[in-house]
Design goal:
about 450 residues, binds zinc ion, six-stranded mixed beta sheet, alpha/beta
Amino acid sequence: MKIYTIGGFTEVGKNMTVVDMGDDAVIFDAGVYLPALIELQEEEEHQKTYSEKKLRQIEALPDDLILDKLGVRKKVRAILLGHAHLDHLGAVPYISYRYKAPVVGTPFTLAVLKKILQDEKIKIPNKLITVNPNSSFIIKGKKRSYKAEFINVTHSTLQTSMIALHTPEGVVLYANDFKLDNTPIMGLPPNYEALKRIAKQGVKALIIDSLYSGDNKKTPSEKVARALVEEVLMTIKNEKSAIFVSTFSSHIARIKSIVDYGKKLNRKIYVIGRSMNKYISAANEVGMCPFRRDIQIGSYKRQVESILKTVSKNRRNSLVICTGHQGEPGSILDRLSRKKLPFEFNQNDNIIFSSKTIPVPANMANKENMDKRFRKIGVRIFDDVHVSGHGGREDLRDLISIVKPKHIIPAHGSTRQLTPMIELAREMGYKTGKECHLMQDGQVLEV
Ligand SMILES: [Zn+2]
């Protein structure tokens, strides 16, 4: 078989991998490159949609046009999505029409995709098919069919799967993104039984999230992040001050923890920002938003302004969850810091970042400049109240030990992020270039 590493092997973003089995091919993920997109974004209230051509120009989409040249495009029988993050599904609205294939994912993943399609007013011709966590989808090929198993795993959004594609040559396991969290706050723990079973059946190739392969650690459970949220909210001196918390909109489990402790403080909880509304509505639609009745959501300009005016009058009884943890231009926190919204921070008000600034120059600069504006007023800032959704080196070692793949293909980063994974594989007895392969965007590996 041939494995095309289309996107996410030269940068952190626009993930896309294609497996070509001769008569038939399958796509894993079709994500966007976020920093490129953020630079395009206007203020939230007049967000624009961009054309495929424009997005290709700024290299925000994976370069799947090479599949046409290689004669692979017409053989694609399914587009399989591992989870709901934009760097894994954000390109689907723009490129899926090029394939006569269904788009398949878990209920939450597809609910998010549908929200994006609605929001951007894009219609795609592909069938959208939901598969429950720990269930399978049968892909119809030219002469035979293939089973794609959606094996539940933990990550920073709901219903994330590792996808096991059963081929005549063995299983291809797409494990991009994950961590191994046995005590998640929402959803199921990793399905180790399924991983052990496919190991017995024989894993031919493992495409593995290597973002933190250079960090010598096991990424802590989401229950640790919940404890960090509890610590900050319940122990800081905050009786008289406003509390704003920002986190990843797609991180429903984290939002749940923030809501739970906000309630313990007897504060009314408001959630504002377009993307917050998008992910929370998607979670609610699939029955995974236990806190929906405990919050008031504001998405559009007028709703946001009205909520902020109310908070302004009741600052000691309110807690606001909002967008802007990366200092993104146009996000709620960014606009608050520029005094473009009807709420003024006072000295000793609190802004809690239940997030980590993604270490790319644009984000670092945005966040730093936003922090400066808040600090000028004397706002207290709490960074890194967060635990990652990506496994560290020792999680990766565990996964490899369980599934015992023949070939390892590090994914989710540039050479800087992927190289430590190559070293780890070598430590575990894999021969570099023969069994463990350092790939770049636009390359092909024959195994
Ligand atoms: Zn992810």
